[in-house]
Hints:
The protein is an alpha+beta fold and 301 residues long. It is built from 13 helices and seven strands. The protein folds into three domains: 5-133 and 202-259, Gyrase A, domain 2 (2-Layer Sandwich), CATH 3.30.1360.170; 136-200; 266-300, no CATH class.
Amino acid sequence: xxxxxxxxxxxxxxxxxxxxxxxxxxxxxxxxxxxxxxxxxxxxxxxxxxxxxxxxxxxxxxxxxxxxxxxxxxxxxxxxxxxxxxxxxxxxxxxxxxxxxxxxxxxxxxxxxxxxxxxxxxxxxxxxxxxxxxxxxxxxxxxxxxxxxxxxxxxxxxxxxxxxxxxxxxxxxxxxxxxxxxxxxxxxxxxxxxxxxxxxxxxxxxxxxxxxxxxxxxxxxxxxxxxxxxxxxxxxxxxxxxxxxxxxxxxxxxxxxxxxxxxxxxxxxxxxxxxxxxxxxxxxxxxxxxxxxxxxxxxxx
Length: 301
């Protein structure tokens, strides 16, 4: 379970402490505050704090007072204009702080996005729990034959069972040794900062991750994409649902222009124009490499 009974009681207590405020609040985000959204087998995402809403984006763009000088319809239109023309600063006026529990190997992918403030649970001071990510059988897959960083067909039968048993056995053996090394019963015990080196990459860690909306949307564009690794994509999907409730106008524009839209090269745009004129365009006469042409065809559907 992602949360223990004690942790759930703490969440309930936090949600019970309502405070009056003069700052702008997002009703959609308020319902998410402190609540843990389960991800994977032991992980979660929860909102600890946030600042701003759709109106804050418009306010920053217009540098105006209060909730803005235009109607709600114009606010949505302005946000779509800002997203369409890649204006980033107004979206940076909104921020969110998340508490995330995730496997270490997912955290190492996540931390490559160097545009956030992060504070991670320290295994130098504390003892990590015996919690490991063990994939569901349907997520065990062979190496892709066309993508060096992707998956192919799912493993089945005895091979899948053997791999799952190896993952479980190795993780628990490493944790047994970790406990044995740090124990102070009849020995000095190895320092926690050294003992942690023996733990596997599928053990869970936790961190607070604070980021502005502009950089969060960039993270989501990459990690909620169908080509992203499953284990980080499910976290991104959970965050997408939160953002959709927090800033609905901005998220809808993001879906249209970033997730659902496409950016093509000048060469590809020329090919589209030639196609519209009735010309037969092939990879050989397109000016594109085979890889570029394949991606172009995928974009056109």
